Amino acid sequence: MSGGDEPEIVVPPGLEAGVFANAVSVFHDIEYVTIDFVRVEPRDRSVGFVVSRAIAPTSCILDLKQQIEHIE
């Protein structure tokens, strides 16, 4: 989206705090990318819990990559 076409982003109640993740796992095919954000247990690094999963079209992930590359 560009310019004035961007929607207002609303975070629903209960999601404001977000979740903590210290690892990420990415799966993809030609059209979609699945990103699992994982919390790995500090006392047992062999155990990890998916705390959030995002599935997005590849174009969205390319936008994300561009935005991350411009973080100072």
Helix and strand topology:
Blueprint: E1 23-28, E2 32-40, E3 48-57, H1 58-69
Descriptive account of the structure:
This protein has a domain at 20-69. 17% of the residues lie in helices and 35% in strands. The chain has one helix and three strands, in the order βββα. It has a three-stranded antiparallel beta sheet. 0% of the residues are buried. The model has no long low-confidence stretch (mean pLDDT 91).
What are the defining features of this structure?
alpha+beta; globular; single chain; 3-stranded antiparallel beta sheet; 72 residues
Q: What is the general shape?
A: globular
- Please, what is the average pLDDT? 91
Residue stretches low in confidence (pLDDT < 50, at least 5 long) are none
Order the strands across the largest sheet as they lie in space: 1-2-3
SSE order, as H and E?
Answer: EEEH
Main β sheet profile: 3 strands, antiparallel
Number of helices: 1
Helix content: 10-25%
Radius of gyration, taken over Cα atoms and rounded to an integer in Å? 15 Å
Number of strands: 3
Beta-strand content: 25-35%
